[in-house]
């Protein structure tokens, strides 16, 4: 039976962890290094670190903070934001990350996915997809630049394309659900999960324990990611894992 993963996410802006609603209305949540250390001890399976304004502001992810976070944890670390070249991928991995998450640059230049996979292995390359439903088109569209720019891509087609280029994992965020705490977008997650053969991490909308079991079963996600409900102690990784285990979902014992 597949082991499902629970992953806290650190959205970082100007060196601080922040959280908002639908990618806006950001508020300070704390220090990323302190959070990383806490979540490692709490039993998180992985940690995601996203420099959320790096692409829209045209700068690089903060290598020093990545190094500081990596030094504090024993679990896998995925880092995204402002990764535009093969050299950027190398820099972040050498700073201590296990995987890099790429969105904007991959849409602009899909060859970057192949280059990264060829050099560092597919498992090191995560394609982040920020998705928003377009009522006029009747489908979910891919957004870049921190959720500010709509692209030509339909989400499922881009997910397939990214995997064909060598992506080893999809980090799928629903902009519509982000920060609302009303649950993950189950339909979107299931559509993407059924369309690719690599793990899909569901993100956006976690508000209570039941949301996790729903996205991991009905949504067919391999992992579920959350931020504010963990940061503000509304629940914990341990509580979520215990709840899932009681209901027959296979989770790690760490």
TrEMBL record:
<dbReference type="InterPro" id="IPR050064">
    <property type="entry name" value="IGPS_HisA/HisF"/>
</dbReference>
<protein>
    <recommendedName>
        <fullName>Imidazole glycerol phosphate synthase subunit HisF</fullName>
        <ecNumber>4.3.2.10</ecNumber>
    </recommendedName>
</protein>
<comment type="function">
    <text>IGPS catalyzes the conversion of PRFAR and glutamine to IGP, AICAR and glutamate. The HisF subunit catalyzes the cyclization activity that produces IGP and AICAR from PRFAR using the ammonia provided by the HisH subunit.</text>
</comment>
<comment type="subunit">
    <text>Heterodimer of HisH and HisF.</text>
</comment>
<dbReference type="InterPro" id="IPR011060">
    <property type="entry name" value="RibuloseP-bd_barrel"/>
</dbReference>
<keyword id="KW-0963">Cytoplasm</keyword>
<keyword id="KW-0368">Histidine biosynthesis</keyword>
<keyword id="KW-0028">Amino-acid biosynthesis</keyword>
<dbReference type="InterPro" id="IPR013785">
    <property type="entry name" value="Aldolase_TIM"/>
</dbReference>
<dbReference type="GO" id="GO:0000105">
    <property type="term" value="P:L-histidine biosynthetic process"/>
</dbReference>
<keyword id="KW-0456">Lyase</keyword>
<comment type="similarity">
    <text>Belongs to the HisA/HisF family.</text>
</comment>
<dbReference type="GO" id="GO:0005737">
    <property type="term" value="C:cytoplasm"/>
</dbReference>
<dbReference type="GO" id="GO:0000107">
    <property type="term" value="F:imidazoleglycerol-phosphate synthase activity"/>
</dbReference>
<dbReference type="GO" id="GO:0016829">
    <property type="term" value="F:lyase activity"/>
</dbReference>
<dbReference type="InterPro" id="IPR006062">
    <property type="entry name" value="His_biosynth"/>
</dbReference>
<dbReference type="Pfam" id="PF00977">
    <property type="entry name" value="His_biosynth"/>
</dbReference>
<dbReference type="InterPro" id="IPR004651">
    <property type="entry name" value="HisF"/>
</dbReference>
<comment type="pathway">
    <text>Amino-acid biosynthesis; L-histidine biosynthesis; L-histidine from 5-phospho-alpha-D-ribose 1-diphosphate: step 5/9.</text>
</comment>
<feature type="active site">
    <location>
        <position position="130"/>
    </location>
</feature>
<feature type="active site">
    <location>
        <position position="11"/>
    </location>
</feature>
